[in-house]
Amino acid sequence: MFAVSLAVAAALTAVPVSDGWRVQRADGTALLEQHAAADHRAYIHPLMAPDGKGVYTENEPKHHPWQHGLYIGLHAVNGINFWEKEQNKFHPEPVAKPVVEGNTARWKVKTRWTDQDGSPVLTETQDWTLTDYGTNYVLDLTWTLSADFGDVTFGKWTYGGLFLRMPYKKANAKRQFAVNSRGQRNDAAEQKEAEWVEVSMPIEGRTSKGVVRIEDLPGNPGYPNPWRVDGQLGIAPSHCIRGPWRLSKGEKRVNRYRVTVKDK
Fold first, then answer.
1. Phi, psi of 163 (to 5 degrees)
2. Which of 28, 100, 119, 264 holds its CA 20 to 30 A away from the CA of 55?
3. Per residue in 140-181, pLDDT tens?
4. In whole angstroms, what is the distance from residue 160 CA to residue 73 CA?
5. Cα-flanking dihedrals φ and ψ of residue 86, to 5°?
6. At 175, is the secondary structure helix, strand, or coil?
7. Band (116; pLDDT cuts 50, 70, 90)
8. Nearest Cα to Cα of residue 249 among 161, 162, 145, 156
9. Does 75 have pLDDT greater than 70?
């Protein structure tokens, strides 16, 4: 069975979209789109169901219009809000075509974060690898923050980091939930340490639920970190919950995460 899944997913390809790339199977089944428009936050949306039938992420929801599917943001970076207002604070380089080898695709998003006057604050790099297994697929992220321009302070906050926004609907309250590696659900998982958090919810056009799990991997600073689990089941492993931290000029901080996309 596993060998069959690998055979189905043996060939990926990348095709350009207006501000980035779509990664899809050779048969045209789209898996995701990486966006990196000039002077805007880079993000992944849509994150598709493994069979390509259904969108697992939501872009600019009414309850949090600054959110974009799977993305990164932080509060209180040298006192600057890099979470909500985004235009002219993020300056991603054009994303080179993903390197595809069989059922894997690799790409990099490098972004300069600046203050409102345009002065650079830090460099952020996202190195992504997608591995497609047919019945599910996995995204591995290496996230690097580099203090290339001077010392950088990061304030304590109740959320921040790699964030996932799925299409929450109040009417589905009894059929959607977040659960962590400790068995805590929804509000009980908010601000709690965990190795992973998984969100499950109905997806338009599907009879099965969409499921996305984010893992905070061993070796990350503060592992296992506390998590944001908000009222609409947005999730993020958030080192900033514990307290402030800093990078001196020339220092880097590297975090690694795994995102698994499947159904239930």
1. -125, 140
2. 100
3. 999 999 999 999 999 999 999 999 999 999 999 899 999 999
4. 6
5. -120, -30
6. helix
7. confident
8. 145
9. yes
Determine the Cα–Cα distance for residues 164 and 72; give it in Å rounded to an integer.
9
Task: Tell me if 70 sits within 8 A of 43, measured CB to CB.
Answer: yes
- Give me the pLDDT at residue 111, please: 98
Q: What angle do CA 242, 89, 60 make, to 5 degrees?
A: 80
Whole-number Å distance between alpha carbons of 81 and 149: 18
SS3 at position 240: helix
On whether the CB atoms of residues 144 and 125 are closer than 8 A, the answer is yes
Per-residue tokens: 100: 């595809």
Encoded tokens for 61: 């929801």
Instruction: Find, among 9, 60, 68, 8, the residue nearest to 34 by Cα.
Output: 68
Displacement of CA 205 from its chain's centroid (Å) = 23
* CA–CA gap between residue 258 and residue 139 (Å, rounded): 6
> Does residue 241 contact residue 157 with C-beta atoms inside 8 Å?
yes
Contact criterion met (CB below 8 Å) for 256 and 219: yes
83: exposed, middle or buried (C-beta count within 10 Å: 0-12, 13-18, 19+)? Answer: buried
For the chain, domain boundaries: 2-263
Residue 14 CB coordination number (10 Å): 20
Contacts with 223 (C-beta within 8 Å, 6 or more apart), sequence order: 216, 217
Give me the CATH topology for the region 2-263.
Beta-galactosidase; Chain A, domain 5 (2.70.98)
**Residue recorded with tokens 């109040």:** 170
Q: Are 103 and 131 in contact (CB under 8 A)?
A: yes
